[in-house]
Amino acid sequence: MQFWFARRSEVSIREQLVTQVVLGILSDDLAPGQRLPSTRELARRFHVHPTTVSAGYRQLERERWVEFRRGSGVYVRARKPETSATPALALDQTIARLFRSAQALGVTLPALRSRLQQWLELQPPDHFLLIEPDEELRRILAAEIARAVTFPVESCGPEDCPKTPEGGIPVVLPNRAATVRALLPPGAELLALQLRSVPASLAPYLPAPSSALVGVASRCPEFLKVARAVLQAVGFHPDSLVFRDAREPNWQRGLKQTGAVICDLLTAAELPAGCRALPFSLVSESSIAELQHYEQFVNQPVESS
Q1: Burial of 42 (0-12, 13-18, 19+ CB in 10 A)
Q2: What tens digit of pLDDT does each residue of 19-64 get?
Q3: d(CA 67, CA 4)
Q4: Which residue has the higher pLDDT, 8 or 229?
Q5: Contact in structure between 172 and 195 (CB atoms under 8 Å)
Q6: Which residues lie below 8 Å from residue 267, measured CB to CB, with a gap of 6+?
């Protein structure tokens, strides 16, 4: 079996070695009892540190793919370990078969890479990529979007935003749009979410009863800040509001004594039993409809005339 290592890959050399050996065993490129190259041999041939190779071999031994024979070397075990086929492993096997088939046809690696890139560029998006620097706000927005769409929702901060979000539809809040657009290739699509109107959402509960004790809970400081300003503006007395930062210890204290707790989608699931939760969605209904429409458009097959 021939090994190869990509030095500029995000995947470590050790992980590359382990993956190639496992795929070689599963595809029978490496036969039971076959001796693997020694640590020194692989290190010399590929100019990698012997410790890296040794660590990869030890991992393979722990996972029962290979065995060490004293004074002889590293060998493929007689029996493959009983492992469940994970989606990642199944995908790796498919890719390995593709590369073997390409080799058999005499296709060079650059030609295969170019062809794969063409196919990737032709594929429609398959997930939303939420880009937001505030981690807590990012978690809340991602949960709201995931509840409304069937596409997976991935998220990251601007500093982790890929320059080319392959297969992803970038999504941001309006105040982040200019910053994020500068990170994306020219002409890349970017969906800006609109936030829900707080007063309009609270309209069924207004005017606020003077005796009402209302809780406000969230892990997002911005959520608490906006809630304080808006609730007081629409008539809630400051003394009737109980604010709780869900990141702090014992944040649930006193919430059972409130008539209701205004909170975000994630915090609602963490409220004490018996609390009346009023989850407030940050993303506007129009933006949710836009995300759903975009998803339907992508999933709709092109009709031939």
Answers
A1: buried
A2: 889 888 887 889 999 999 999 999 999 999 999 999 999 999 999 9
A3: 22
A4: 229
A5: no
A6: 217, 218, 219, 246
The token pair at 140 is: 């809340």
Neighbours of 169 (CB within 10 A): 22
Q: Which two tokens stand for residue 238?
A: 């400051």
* Beta bridge partners of residue 241, listed in sequence order: 214
CA gap 125, 77 in Å, rounded: 42
3-state secondary structure of 35: strand
Neighbours of 212 (CB within 10 A): 14
161-180: average pLDDT: 87
Cα 245–246–249 angle (5° rounding)?
Answer: 95
8 Å CB contact between 251 and 275:
no
The pLDDT, as a whole number, for residue 302 is: 52
Determine the longest span between alpha carbons in the chain, in angstroms. Answer: 84
Query: 271: helix, coil or strand?
Result: coil
Q: Are the CB atoms for 145 and 153 separated by under 8 Å?
A: yes
Smallest Cα–Cα separation from 39: which of 19, 24, 55, 23? 55
Rounded CA-CA distance 305/301 in Å is 13
User: 157 with 182: CB under 8 angstroms?
Assistant: no
pLDDT digits (tens, 9 = 90+) for 153-169: 999 999 888 877 778 89
| CB atoms closer than 10 angstroms to residue 23 | 19
**Beta-bridge partners for 68:** 74
